[in-house]
Amino acid sequence: MSSESSMDWVETRCHRILDANLDRAREGLRILEEWCRFGLERADLSATCKALRQEVGSWHRPEFRQARDTTHDPGTSLSHPQERQRTDLNAVLLANCARVQEALRVIEEYGKLIEGDLSDRAKAMRYQIYVLESQLQSRDRLSRLRQARLYLVTSPHPRLLEVVEAALSAGLKLVQYRDKQQEDATRLETACRLAELCQRYGALFLVNDRVDLALACGADGVHLGQQDVPMDVARRILGPDRIVGRSTTSPEELARANAEGADYVGVGPIFATPTKPGKAAAGFDYLGYARQQAQQPFYAIGGIDVSNAAAVVAAGADRLAVVRAIMEAPDPKAATAELLQML
Ligand SMILES: Cc1ncc(COP(=O)(O)OP(=O)(O)O)c(N)n1
Ligand SMILES: Cc1nc(C(=O)O)sc1CCOP(=O)(O)O
Ligand SMILES: [Mg+2]
C-alpha cells in the first residue's frame, strides 16, 4: 500500500468512526430530550437537548457518511448484558448521558486527526453534558421525592441497617438518618452504610441536621430544623442538585421555608410524641394550614402510625414521616407495607 493510500485508509476509518459517534451522540441526546419534554415537561431542558442535538447534526459531513460500512461493522452483533438492563428511569438517563459523553470523547480524539475545530467543539459540548446530567439527576431527585409518600426517619437501633433494609424491601423510597446522641465518627460510618443501602434499593437518603455528614457520605440531601444552618449555606455546601428539607411547626416557620425555597417541609408534630419530648402537638389545624400554604411537598410527622394515619390523611396530608411506627415495629417490613398501602 503506498503512503498516500495508507493515509487515505486511516482517514476513511476516522471518517467512519466520526460518523458512528456523531449518530451515537445525537441518538443519546434524543432519548434525554424525550424525557425532558414528555417526562419532566421542562421546556428549558428540552430546548437545551434539542439545541445540542442540532449542533451535533451540523458537525456531520458527507464524507463521514460515505465512509459508513454497516455491513462489515463487527460491532453490530456485539452486545453487553448491561446494555439491555435498565432498572429504572434514572438508569435510562444515566446510561444515555454516558453514551453521549463517550461519543463526544471519541469525536474529540479522532477529530484531532481530521479537523481541530470539530475536536474543540466536541470537548466543549462534553462539559455541557456533564452539567445536563447533574440537572437531570437533580430533577430526578426532586421527582423521586414527589413520588415518595412515606418517609422513614430513623432512631437509634441495635439492628438499624436490618430494620431500614426491611422497610426498603417493602417499597420505602425515602430515608432520613437521625441520631442526636452518637459521636461523629460512628454517625459518619452509619450514614455511609445507609447511603449505600438506599442506593441499592433506589431510595433517596438524607441526613438529619448535619450538612457536613450529608456531604461526606454522598447523601441525596439534608433535613434542617429551625435551629440548623440557613438553607443557602446548606446548598452552598451540598451543591444545587441536592435536596434540602426544613422542619416547620407554625405558619411563620412555613412562610420562612417557602421564602427560602425548601424542597420539602416537615409539618408537625401532629400528635405529641415521646420521640421528640417536650414539643407540643401542632395538630390538625396546622396540618390544614400547611395543605393550603405549603409551596413544596410536605410530610406530616409526629406520633403517626397505622392507627391514626387515615385520620391524618383525611386532615390533609398526602405524605407521612414516621419514626416509631417502623423503627419499633415487630415486623418493620409489614408495618411499612401497611403504611404504604394507606397512602
Ligand atoms: C421530615 C422531618 N420533619 C421534621 C423533622 C424534625 O427534625 P429534627 O432535627 O428531629 O428536629 P428539629 O431540628 O426540627 O427541632 C425531621 N427530622 N424530619
Ligand atoms: C423527628 C420528629 N420531628 C418532629 C417535628 O414535629 O418536627 S416530630 C418527630 C418525631 C416523630 O417520631 P414518631 O413517628 O415516633 O412519633
Ligand atoms: Mg434538626
Summarize the structure.
This protein has 343 residues and is α/β, with parallel strands linked by helices. Helix content is 59%, strand content 10%.
If you had to describe this structure to a student in words, what would you say it looks like?
The protein is built from 15 helices and eight strands. With 343 residues, it is of the alpha/beta class. It has two domains: 3-143; 148-342, Aldolase class I (TIM Barrel), CATH 3.20.20.70. The protein has an eight-stranded parallel barrel, surrounded by six helices. It starts with a helix and ends with a helix. The mean pLDDT is 94. It binds the ligand Cc1ncc(COP(=O)(O)OP(=O)(O)O)c(N)n1, the ligand Cc1nc(C(=O)O)sc1CCOP(=O)(O)O and magnesium ion. Ligand 3NM binds next to helix 14. Residues 153, 247, 249, 266, 268-269, 273, 275-276, 301-304, 322-325 line the site of ligand 3NM. Pfam families: ThiD2, TMP-TENI. This is Thiamine-phosphate synthase. Pathway: Cofactor biosynthesis; thiamine diphosphate biosynthesis; thiamine phosphate from 4-amino-2-methyl-5-diphosphomethylpyrimidine and 4-methyl-5-(2-phosphoethyl)-thiazole: step 1/1. Residues 16-134 form the ThiD2 domain.
